[in-house]
């Protein structure tokens, strides 16, 4: 089997696999498992281990979602305070810093609809104290 050509889909897929990071779109927060594509995610969701965990979470889904939300907010605010002090930063740029950590809680696993903050011309802006600006 030969190597994939540079720039091809297979080449890019292999490079992404080597990095260890995958798209957030295919991540199961319950199992903390990242999948490379839709098919892998579908197969994971049909697995016995995922089904077992989903049933246990399903009994107290509100509590689990609240725990994820609380953990995300605490992680977000503490990282914001420590890394940026009182400087302003675009929320999306900062969110990219948050999700760069491999063990972070994903925003789509929380009850939050978005990052909040106040809209400015260039994007969402956050201040380091954890307060919206």
UniProtKB/TrEMBL annotation:
Family annotation (Gene3D superfamilies): DNA/RNA-binding protein Kin17, conserved domain
Pfam family, one: C2H2-zf_KIN17
SUPFAM superfamilies per record: beta-beta-alpha zinc fingers (SSF57667)
Superkingdom in the source lineage: Eukaryota
Alphabetical list of PROSITE patterns matching this protein: ZINC_FINGER_C2H2_1 (PS00028)
Domain C2H2-type per the UniProt entry, residue ranges: 28-50
InterPro entries hit by this protein: C2H2-Znf_KIN17, DNA/RNA-bd_Kin17_WH-like_dom, KIN17-like, KIN17_WH-like_sf, Znf_C2H2_sf, Znf_C2H2_type
Name the UniProt record assigns to this protein: C2H2-type domain-containing protein
UniProt source species: Podospora pseudoanserina
């Amino acid at each position: 089997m030969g190597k994939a050509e540079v720039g091809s889909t297979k080449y890019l897929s292999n490079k992404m696999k080597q990095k260890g990071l995958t798209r957030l779109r295919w991540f199961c927060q319950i199992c903390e498992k990242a999948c490379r594509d839709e098919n892998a995610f579908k197969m994971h969701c049909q697995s016995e281990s995922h089904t077992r965990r989903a049933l246990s979470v399903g009994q107290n889904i509100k509590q689990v979602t609240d725990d994820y939300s609380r953990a995300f907010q605490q992680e977000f605010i503490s990282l914001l305070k420590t890394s940026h002090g009182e400087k302003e930063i675009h929320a999306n740029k900062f969110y990219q810093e948050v999700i760069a950590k491999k063990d972070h809680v994903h925003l789509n696993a929380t009850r939050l609809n978005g990052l909040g903050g106040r809209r400015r011309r260039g994007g969402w802006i956050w201040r380091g104290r954890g307060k919206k600006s």
